[in-house]
Amino acid sequence: MVHTATKILSTRAAPGGESVDYWRHVISDAFVPLEAAAPEPSFRGEVRIDRLGSTLVSRVDAGPHRVRRTKAMISASERGYYKLGLQVRGSCLLVQDGREALLGPGDFALYDTDRPYTLAFGEPTSMAVFMFPRERLRLGAGGARQVLGQPIRGDDEPGSLLSPLFRRLVRQLGGATSPIPLADAVLDLLAALLTEQAGAAPDSLVLQAQAYIDTHLSDPDLCPDSVAAALHISTRYLQKLFAEQGTGVASWIRTRRLEQCRRDLSRPELTRPVSAVGAAWGLPDAAHFSRAFKAAYGLSPREFRAQALS
Predict the structure, then answer these.
(1) CATH number, domain at 265?
(2) Radius of gyration over alpha carbons of the chain, in Å?
(3) pLDDT of residue 62
(4) Could you give the CA distance from residue 128 to residue 58 in angstroms, rounded to a whole number?
(5) pTM higher than 0.70
(6) 166 CA to centre of own chain
């Protein structure tokens, strides 16, 4: 989905005395199912929500409160997302997997929505929240264990590079310029820096496979078997290498094709038909391309182009 109109939800719409319960519904609908508690019955909160493709970008402004994601909630609604919380004002204590990250303004942390966590805000707070599929960062299981729940300070690397970009992305929402290119660039940089920080660089064969895939995306016959054959390894072994990075070969190929299609559809200088865009990136079946694109981005390719170029 492209950048849609900002959606604003606030406890001002809640009946008297029900603001905390209303807030629980608001944040559960916006993100993933969560519990919410506040020390004051007069709790107030507001969340501004924008969608950029598969990434949800939100700005949360609220009084002191706590949210919690439990094992029961996860088992009922596992979704495969990471969330990144950037503290803008006030402070937050994130707890996940026994790790505690105390965040101040400019600090951020990455956490997994499919593992229990708690966010505690002891004072009036403002936080920018970015939620996106785990595959977007391409962290292996080992790399994820090293970076999840760890505070990343705004005045240290990589925070000094990323924090201003995340802030700029939030500022661009609602502006005349599409924020999608910046969102893509920031998440790519986040993936690279976190991979480097975790010391979990992909296997060289995985990098070779990814490079081969990128140079053959236009080939409709590109598949795990052809990639494995090009690298002179078995398909089973190739699948194992990709699984260690948290993805699959076919999924990687599909994602890379759809990413290229999305970028072409948002370029005003490219006037080729939508079906031709899909065919150019190895998706010649127009119906299949449309279904896959909508499943990934929430809009059909035609709808995406119309909004991106409006």
Answers:
(1) 1.10.10.60
(2) 21
(3) 96
(4) 6
(5) no
(6) 12
